[in-house]
Design brief:
Layout lengths: L2 E6 L7 H11 L4 E9 L2 E8 L5 H14 L6 E5 L6 E2 L5
Antiparallel strand pairs: 1-3, 1-4, 2-3, 4-5
Helix pairs in contact: 1-2
């Protein structure tokens, strides 16, 4: 896996910039947010991930940030080139 896409498609209790900063802190040495945008259907964050880092470790960090910031199911995550989107409530 070399990237993760995050869509914020519902209301969140913090600014998107706060989510970006928290992700960069949590993923230090594993990856970083390299793109972000806001449109009619929500906001997105693009995370570039070091190729030698396990997918599970990166996703665990991302979902930890989303949980800690109270974002919950207002975010969906797509790991790499997969067509599957995962919400916090679906993460195990």
């Amino acid at each position: 896996m070399d990237f993760v896409e995050i869509w914020l498609d519902g209301p969140i209790p913090v600014d998107r910039d706060d989510v970006e900063d928290a992700l960069n802190e949590k993923l230090a040495g594993m990856g970083e947010v390299v793109g972000a945008g806001t449109g009619e259907s929500g906001s997105n964050l693009d995370v570039e991930v070091e190729e030698d880092v396990a997918k599970e470790v990166v996703l665990r960090g991302i979902f930890a940030v989303l949980s800690e910031l109270g974002v919950g199911d207002s975010a969906r995550v797509r790991p790499g080139d997969e067509n599957v989107w995962i919400r916090l409530s679906e993460w195990s």
